[in-house]
């Protein structure tokens, strides 16, 4: 006998929210197989196999580009061009998402949109030019989510990003700025001098 599942159980198997299942019912994508006397939805296990609900033809290719600062906008345009040419050469219809923000900032609008699309099982593949375009630290977490959601990840360039040093310097400066705000609050003259020297060292490294 086919097991009947509650909406909570069905949503966990499919990896979507209960609200998504209700929306799919309104859109005619997935109907509950039965209703209880209390009008609770019940789904047959055979009806909610992910491969039956998520057809790859309905999933999209996401291409993601990012730079840390306004000074790198030219590089952002180059990333976009590389991504567009790569996806077009493979015949993929794709959506391009770009961010202007630090690689240690998890709150970027484009990155959050990308993650939400993956979690909602809307993505077939993710294309980036370099690993660190996602995040400076924590890209592996995004890759793990992709693996769990059966999303193919394509990194076009496996070598070092040609703007690596400049980008890293921007991220280090952001970390220093955060610590500065906290340490200056203590009004420590020693701390202030130390942080000023660190900033000077980073500035010198970006000029060489």
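^ structure tokens above, recovered residues below v
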């Amino acid at each position: 006998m086919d097991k009947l599942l509650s909406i909570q159980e069905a949503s966990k198997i499919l990896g979507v929210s209960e609200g998504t299942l209700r929306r799919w019912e309104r859109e005619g994508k997935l109907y509950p197989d039965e209703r209880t006397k209390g009008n609770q939805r019940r789904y047959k296990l055979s009806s909610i196999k992910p491969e039956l609900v998520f057809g790859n033809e309905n999933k999209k290719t996401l291409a993601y580009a990012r730079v840390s600062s306004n000074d790198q906008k030219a590089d952002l345009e180059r990333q976009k061009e590389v991504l567009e040419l790569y996806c077009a050469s493979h015949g993929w219809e794709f959506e391009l998402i770009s961010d202007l923000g630090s690689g240690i900032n998890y709150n970027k609008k484009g990155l959050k949109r990308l993650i939400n699309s993956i979690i909602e099982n809307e993505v077939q593949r993710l294309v980036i030019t370099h690993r660190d375009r996602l995040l400076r630290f924590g890209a592996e977490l995004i890759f793990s989510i992709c693996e769990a959601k059966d999303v193919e990840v394509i990194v076009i360039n496996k070598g070092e990003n040609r703007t690596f040093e400049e980008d890293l310097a921007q991220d280090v400066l952001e970390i220093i700025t955060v610590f500065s705000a906290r340490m200056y609050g203590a009004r420590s003259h020693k701390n202030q001098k130390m942080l000023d020297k660190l900033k000077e060292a980073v500035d010198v490294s970006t000029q060489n």
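Helices lie at 7-14, 18-27, 50-53, 73-89, 109-119, 139-148, 164-184, 189-207.
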